[in-house]
Design goal:
alpha/beta, Rossmann fold, seven-stranded parallel sheet, about 15% strand, quercetin 7-O-glucosyltransferase activity
Length: about 450
């Protein structure tokens, strides 16, 4: 259905799972669609919408559905299982209501692009005769593992110390996602990630937030099964191809941003001298781990910028902030893209959430990987052994990464024997990620092909 007379070629409704790390890549993809002449409407939950600081100049429309917990979202539900089942039942109904509402307003939708975590949305799309497109925010490698679990090809609990799957290097059991290696942990989330594949065979397109060179083998294997295309990295355009004007950040924050403290502090630091430390918006470190990390950073004798959420700051050792004030800055929030693109930053100590990895890769920043759970152990394996742009800080038998290991890993990445190779590879991936999304690159051509399909639908 072509809507040229209304000023756009097609209308895409985008439905992310209600977490910042899922909203951001889908919002960025929406901006890419708008730049290609497609109208994009992002549907957040009412609870997320209330807590969001969104950009009023965004080219993407924002609408809402309900997850059944309009006051507090996930934190209002009594358990993960209750939240997810209510999100499905109430979400499906309110999504259908939204599709009808947009039609009544004269802005009919012709494609629903839904987060892989929300497979029930495909059933709603089909009910309305819309194209149903699944969007994965985690790497293809990780999803290949979940696919093999869902199809019972990889039985759980894992019987062997290693896992061998098509398109992937041989993985230690501990290098698989935590919902696979420790399959009894977090049963609600285990069901969520595995269930992504229950109806994928009915999806019209499968989109991945990565680019072809990043996961070539596994992408080629999966592309034989579904109409799969890479459309990333979904990092704001000003950090990559600069073709979308004023696209400097994600434009939606669940935390009130104030970037001045970080950036002012970074400005007078020498090039490549700062260790940036952030574990994303979800990870919670135990007190012992926080202490070891704190003294490890102090031990490096390097400048460090450490993001510790306000709720976590009580876990810092007493007097740590005062004792390290000459070398370190601890903040509750940081403008991560601005920080990673600053020439003073020499490495990024990260939990290895895929968005953080993609950002570092797109900006050419070497990594020290300290994975926590979910897809992070697998991402960390790739950072060290496949993409070779960082090293893993390995925990001891108690699961704690000790201060000596933190110190050693930071030194290794910034000045050790492997530092040159790691920095060269980081620069290589920066170049390849920009090429992929720039005019005529693999991801750019895939987006053009996708838009052409929408115009015909």
């Amino acid at each position: 259905m072509v809507n040229e007379e209304m000023g756009y070629k097609a209308h895409a409704l985008i439905l992310p799972y209600p977490l910042q790390g899922h909203i951001n890549p889908m919002l960025q993809f929406s901006k890419r669609l708008v730049s290609k002449g497609v109208k994009a409407t992002l549907a957040n939950t009412i609870a997320i919408n209330k807590s969001m600081h969104s950009d009023p100049t965004s080219p993407v429309d924002i609408e809402t559905i309900s997850d059944g917990f309009d006051e507090g979202g996930f934190s209002q539900a009594e358990s993960t299982e209750v939240y997810l089942s209510t999100l499905e039942s109430v979400g499906a109904q309110t999504l259908a209501d939204l599709i009808k509402k947009l039609k009544d307003l004269g802005r009919p939708v012709n494609v629903l692009i839904y987060d892989g975590f929300l497979p029930w949305a495909l059933d709603v799309a089909k009910q309305f005769g819309l194209l149903g497109v699944v969007f994965f925010t985690q790497p293809c490698t990780v999803n290949n593992i979940y696919y093999h679990v869902q199809r019972s090809i990889l039985p759980l609990p894992l019987a062997e110390p290693t896992v061998s799957l098509p398109g992937l290097p041989l993985l230690q059991a501990s290098e698989t996602p935590s919902f696979v290696s420790d399959s009894g942990s977090y049963p609600g989330f285990h069901h969520l990630v595995v269930n992504q594949f229950r109806n994928i065979d009915e999806a019209d397109w499968v989109l991945y937030n990565n680019f072809h060179k990043l996961e070539e083998e596994v992408l080629d294997w999966m592309a034989k099964r579904w109409k799969l295309r890479t459309i990333g990295p979904t990092v704001p355009s000003m950090y990559l191809d600069k073709r979308i004007e004023d696209d400097k950040d994600y434009g939606i924050n669940l935390f009130k941003p104030d970037s001045s403290a970080c950036m002012n502090w970074l400005h007078d630091k020498p090039s490549g001298s700062v260790v940036y430390v952030s574990f994303g918006s979800l990870a919670e470190l135990g007190v012992e781990q926080m202490e070891e990390l704190a003294w490890g950073l102090k031990g490096t004798k390097r400048y460090f910028l450490w993001v510790v959420r306000a709720a976590e700051q009580s876990k810092l050792p007493g007097n740590f902030i005062e004792e390290t004030s000459e070398k370190g800055l601890v903040v509750a929030w940081s403008p991560q893209l601005e920080v990673l693109s600053h020439e003073a930053v020499g490495c990024f100590l990260t939990h290895c959430g895929f968005n953080s990895v993609l950002e570092a890769l797109s900006l050419g920043v070497p990594l020290v990987a300290m994975p926590h759970w979910s897809d992070q152990p697998t991402n960390a394996k790739y950072v060290e052994d496949v993409w070779k742009m960082g090293i893993r800080a390995r925990p001891d038998e108690k699961g704690i990464v000790r201060r000596e290991v933190v110190d050693l890993c930071v030194r290794e990445v910034m000045e050790g024997a492997k530092a040159k190779e790691i920095k060269d590879n980081a620069r290589k991936w920066k170049k390849l990620s920009k090429e992929a999304i720039d005019e005529g690159g693999t991801s750019d051509r895939n987006i053009d092909e996708f838009v052409a399909t929408l115009v015909k639908s």
